[in-house]
Amino acid sequence: MAQQSGLGEPRGPWFISPDLDPAYGGPGNGGGDGSGPGRRWRRIVLTGLVVIALSILSGGLAGGYVAGQDGATPQASASPPAVPPDMVGAAAQVVPGVVSVTVASGGGMATGSGFAIDDQQHLITNDHIVAQAGAAAASAAPNASGTGTSAGSEPSVVVETPDGRQMPAQVVGRDPGSDIAVLKVAPAASLAPLVLAKPGATKVGEPVLAVGSPLGLHGTVTAGIVSALDRQVKLGNNRHRAVQTDAPINPGNSGGPLVNARGEVVGVNTAIATIDGKGSIGIGFAIPIEQVQQVADTIIGKGG
Question: Nearest-CA neighbor of 162 among 207, 103, 221?
Fold first, then answer.
């Protein structure tokens, strides 16, 4: 079975979430009897929301009555706002350049996402996707003496293109420190290279899309905003300055692009925060595109 890597399990717990503040109903708040301060605040907020909802409803009814008295036909309630057309366009622009990545090594397998960055069909993904397949094989295979582990065979990488074709990929180079790896596929893949955002152009609050293959669901697009820039996070044994986002990302999204409304890549999705290791809580992290581009250029320059 393929190991969904990079986000949640096993990647997520590497980011250690702080303990919940008791004032927000976290661990240690109250005694489980519903009398804690977090519970009381929730009741107060809920009561306020009910009052607001009733006020809006009564105002709408009064407006409809006045309109009827004037001979006008009351209008139906407004439909939900449409998806901004720029985000629809960004998704259409990006999805043709995003692939699913499967890495097998001996008895180990890991999956994630990647995306094309040039006409030579170089792809960006996360290094830990490649590394985890090798680590899983090493932990499963005894060495020649029958004790310890063996590193297993060289990893075999296969990508699945947006149109469903599966193609072998070459590992051009890896940089564990930045968690970036560069792959390369044959020209026949015809992947559309994604545009990289300019350094320093990303702004807090701007809308973004996370694109990838969460749980093997190819071409999945989820939306959110840039929550913070230069967020200091500890991932594995390294500290990173990351782009924080609330766009939903899950196992299998790792290595995929985080893009802005213009379809430009602002980061590479790599991890999520978790509470007790239990899935996404709406706090994700992406490697900033400035760092990604610098590392990728170095790898491609050395490896071709």
Answer: 221
pLDDT digits (tens, 9 = 90+) for 250-266: 889 999 999 999 999 99
Which are the catalytic amino acids?
128, 179, 254
DSSP code string of 40-65? HHHHHHHHHHHHHHHHHHHHHHHHHH
Residue type, 69: Q
Q: For the chain, what is the domain count?
A: 3
Nearest 10 degrees: CA dihedral of 212, 103, 165, 210? 10
| Ordered alpha helix ranges (H), 79-154 | 85-94, 127-140
pLDDT at 148 over 50: no
Residue 219 structure tokens? 């071409």
Strand-pair partners of 99: 114
Structure tokens given for 139:
């932990």
**Of residues 135, 136, 109, 112, the one with CA closest to residue 123:** 112
Nearest Cα neighbor of 180 from 304, 273, 291, 303 is 291
Note whether residue 123 is domain-resident: yes
CB 90 within 8 A of CB 262: yes
Question: Which range marks the domain in which residue 223 is found?
Answer: 86-92+195-302
Q: Is the pLDDT of residue 292 over 90?
A: yes
Structure token digits, residue 289: 């595109």
Q: Is the pLDDT of residue 162 over 70?
A: yes
Mean pLDDT, residues 268-287: 82
Kindly state whether residue 280 falls inside one of the protein's structural domains. yes
- How much of the chain is helix, strand and coil, in % rounded to 5? 30, 30, 40
